[in-house]
Write the structure tokens for this entry.
Amino acid sequence: MKNTVAAYQKAFENYQPEGKVLDVYKYPSPVLKKVAKPILEFDDNLKELCLNMLHTMYHAPGIGLAAPQVGESIRLFVMDIDFNKDKVTNFDGTTESKLSNFNPLIFINPEITKSDEQVVHEEGCLSVPGVYEDVKRSAEITVKFQDWDGNSHTIDADKLLSVCIQHENDHLDGIIFLERLSMLKRNLLMKKYLKKKKKK
Ligand code: NI
């Protein structure tokens, strides 16, 4: 692979999650079905949204979050496939998860070129809680995208990074991962999920 994420990640070397925890929209919210609009203005509002989305993602915790999932129909997603989640036991016996080793990534207006080779990987989604299923994706991809200053980058991705970028990019096109499954499997899982959601 020619272009790795390493150089791009340097921008967030001393990152610590801070900001607001935003509401995550759950399937079948209409905003999750919309094709998101390109981002044209790279201002402080955009930076604030990126930081809040990262904080929301770590808080969940999840490894990726797309703007439509927090109700913003714009072409942006955040991701971290590297951070550690350790269960820590306090003096009073309660446990909490401590996060460390952050490697946040922000993708704005991404464009993906896919390889023919396929991989199968189990996916889940903060907008479809409790549902996990194997999804077939392209093994390797090249992504062209902008950072929050509007500068263009190109990276090559494989393994989890590739799968995760394709999952998040689907959100920008109004597609959730269950729609990548066979009709039979999709209908079964959606029925189960909606039934459980109604009960809550
Ligand atoms: Ni998702």
